Amino acid sequence: MKRIAAFSCLLWLGLLATAPARADVPQLALVPLEPVDRLELRKSKRSLTLYRNEQPIRTYRVSLGGNPKGHKEREGDSRTPEGRYYLTFRNTQSRYFLSIQVDYPNALDRAWARRRGWDPGGEIMIH
């Protein structure tokens, strides 16, 4: 069975549409204005699907880190986390892109890395 990284959404992506329009920054015209319940990242297909009420509403092509196969285990491995995570922070201050932070590492990721003497890393963002 293939692993699927599912990001449970605490933020509503519709909030992205409230960012002030600026002539020098391309606008995100494809972001739905209504809230979504869940994001599902399929690494093997390089796709991110938005869900509302368990129904897919839009799918986007995505780019992943330099070494996307397998679950992220430590700082610098260039992998994308696999599992269920929350979106915890939305950066609205960037001049050229908006980003949403994923709550990696969670308690399981930290315990896994600690047992091996590794730094689990962090600062995983969707942008």
Largest sheet: 7 strands, mixed
Give the averaged pLDDT, no decimals. Answer: 76
Return the string of H and E elements: EEEEEEHE
Principal-axes shape call: globular
Report the span from N to C terminus.
Answer: 28 Å
Helix content: under 10%
Structural class: mainly beta
Tell me the strand percentage band: 25-35%
Q: Total strand count, please?
A: 7
Gyration radius from CA atoms, angstroms: 15 Å
Poorly predicted regions: 1-22, 25-30
Task: Characterise the protein shown here.
The chain has one helix spanning about 105-115; strands at about 5-10, 40, 45-50, 55-60, 85-90, 100, 125. By secondary structure, it is mainly beta. It has a 7-stranded mixed β-sheet, with no helix packed on it. The protein starts with a strand and ends with a strand.
Lay out the secondary structure:
Blueprint: E1 5-8, E2 38-42, E3 47-52, E4 55-61, E5 84-91, E6 99-102, H1 107-116, E7 125-126
Parallel strand pairs: 1-5
Antiparallel strand pairs: 1-2, 2-3, 3-4, 5-6, 6-7
Relevant terms:
mainly beta, about 130 residues, single chain, globular, 7-stranded mixed β-sheet, 7 strands, 1 helix
